[in-house]
Write a structure and sequence with these properties.
With about 160 residues, this protein is an all-alpha fold. It contains 6 helices and no strands. The model has no long low-confidence stretch (mean pLDDT about 80).
Length: about 160
């Protein structure tokens, strides 16, 4: 009896899966499902673009990067202010240091201020080691003047 049931099952199985119609049906279903998937993916991408949707991971990474940059600039400005207060110089240096201590929201201005500060420190070291009339000191004074002008132009 068991053998009879197994033979019937095998016979029915061959009949169902050996027909061309069933294979064609499944092939059509696969093609239709792929087309629906592609259309859905395209619609999703269009929705993302239209509504400015980004992935949360990318958004988080961007925010962490921006926070890190802002924190680094704040630390640099804090050190800048402390060093500026410790520096002694003439009236021009004091005016530069006062301008450098002004906080700004513009990263370009902040970068110019940091470069200006570095140049002032470098110039002061050169003056001590080379003297105020040395060509390198004169050259760095010119760079300081140019950076000061750039800072003033971008700050206002």
């Amino acid at each position: 009896m068991l053998e009879s049931l197994i033979k019937q099952f095998e016979s029915k199985h061959k009949e169902v899966y050996s027909t061309k119609k069933v294979g064609d049906y499944f092939d059509e279903q696969i093609i239709r499902t792929k087309e629906q998937l592609e259309a859905s993916q395209k619609a999703l991408e269009e929705f993302r673009i239209k509504n400015s949707v980004v992935s949360l991971d990318a958004e988080r990474d961007l925010l962490v990067d921006e926070y890190t940059k802002a924190k680094r600039l704040l630390d640099q400005l804090t050190r800048l202010e402390a060093t500026a207060q410790a520096l002694e110089g003439d009236a021009a240096d004091q005016a530069i240091m006062e301008a450098l201590s002004q906080k700004t929201e513009h990263t370009v201005v902040t970068e110019i201020q940091l470069r200006l500060f570095d140049k002032v420190v470098e110039r002061n070291q050169m003056v001590k080691s080379l003297g105020p009339k040395h060509p390198r000191v004169i050259g760095i004074k010119q760079e300081i003047s140019e950076l000061n002008v750039q800072s003033a132009q971008r700050h206002h």
